[in-house]
Amino acid sequence: MTNLLTAIRSILFLLWMSITVVPWAIAVLIYSMFVRGAPIYWLCAGWLRTAIWGCKVICGVQKRVHGMENLPDGPVVLLSKHQSTWETFAYPTIMPRPLCYVFKRELLYIPFFGWAMGRIDMIHIDRSRRTEAWNRVAEQGRKHMAAGNWVIMFPEGTRAPRGGQGVYKAGGTRLAIAAGVPVVPIAVNAARCWPRKSFMVRPGTVDVSIGKPIPSEGRTPDDLMREVEQWVEAEMRRLDAEAYAKPAA
User: Fold this and answer.
1) Residue 64: which region, alpha, beta or left (left: phi > 0; alpha: psi -120 to 50)?
2) How many other C-beta atoms can be found within 10 angstroms of the C-beta atom of residue 31?
3) CATH number of the CATH domain containing 125
4) Structural domains in the chain (count)
5) 117 confidence band (pLDDT: 50, 70, 90)
6) What is the pLDDT of residues 151-182, one digit of tens each?
7) Do 236 and 160 form a contact (C-beta atoms < 8 A)?
8) What gap in Å lies between CA 249 and CA 244, rounded to an integer?
9) DSSP assignments along 81-139, one per residue
């Protein structure tokens, strides 16, 4: 009975997102013909707030955010654990500055959602062309941070299962060193409620833990990423000890 109720709620949540994204995306596409930059970002973030609100009301997913005081005033590269779609939707509703995601360009082809993403300041890359992708990240990353945005990257590249760990790649720390800005590690246990590769969204509380900024001056990308990885994975085991006490799902 519990699984049936969860499935019904999850379907209703998917319908909620599908119904709300169409008019919102159309508004973004029309508005972006006259205005670009932060106003378009915050308009898109408005739909994400609607989605996260629906996730809370329909599916019972709450959130707790720890460490907001650790966020700096200046430019920064945010490096987050990646377990779920939830954090990609939630971060723009949490962070005080526009976020510039680095993502695969195929997402731009998703009707309405992707079309709207293409109108805001993000960094979309072709993963099959590594050198070209890095040059784009470095160029666009510096540009967007100079405009007051924060760059956010998921070092594992793809969603890790609850209780699992992917390979931390040093692209984010490489960008931070090249731009001379600190990195901020973030741990999030969203797979507790919204597992990867599943539409079933279960009620519960997602914890988002924001670490202190780590300076990039005088560091190598690999060395800096190891420090980020150690903090994030230790914090994950504190936030979701139950998941790490057994094999990853």
Assistant:
1) beta
2) 14
3) 3.40.1130
4) 1
5) confident
6) 999 999 889 999 999 999 999 999 999 999 99
7) no
8) 10
9) ----HHHHHHHHHH-SS-EEEEEEGGGGGSTTHHHHHTTSS-EEE-TT-HHHHHHHHHH
Q: Give the pLDDT band (50/70/90) at residue 64.
A: very high
pLDDT at 134: 73
Tokens representing residue 144 in the block: 């967007």
178 falls within a domain = yes
Angle (deg, nearest 10), helices 85-94 and 38-59: 120
Q: Which residues on neighbouring strands pair with residue 208, listed in sequence order?
A: 65, 188
DSSP H or E stretch at residue 117: helix 113-117
Number of Cβ within a 10 Å radius of residue 170: 19
With H, G, I as helix, E, B as strand and everything else as coil, classify residue 133: helix
Looking at residue 206, its pLDDT comes to 98
Residue 108 CA to residue 187 CA, distance in Å, equals 27
Among positive and negative, which fits the CA dihedral 186, 189, 195, 201? negative
**What tokens were used for 115?**
């079309």
**Given the structure tokens 């019904």, which residue do they identify?**
8
Please tell me which residue, 10 or 126, carries the higher pLDDT value. 10
Q: Is residue 143 part of a domain?
A: yes
Residue 37 CA, distance from chain mean position: 19
Domain annotation covers residue 154: yes
CA neighbor of 209 nearest in space, from 101, 97, 89, 80: 80
Which residue carries 């890359």 as its tokens? Answer: 125
**Contacts of 96 by beta carbon, 8 Å cutoff, 6+ apart:** 71
Assess if residue 144 is contained within a domain.
Answer: yes
The token pair at 33 is 């013909």
**Residue numbers of the domain that contains 182:** 2-244
Mean pLDDT of the region 29-40: 88
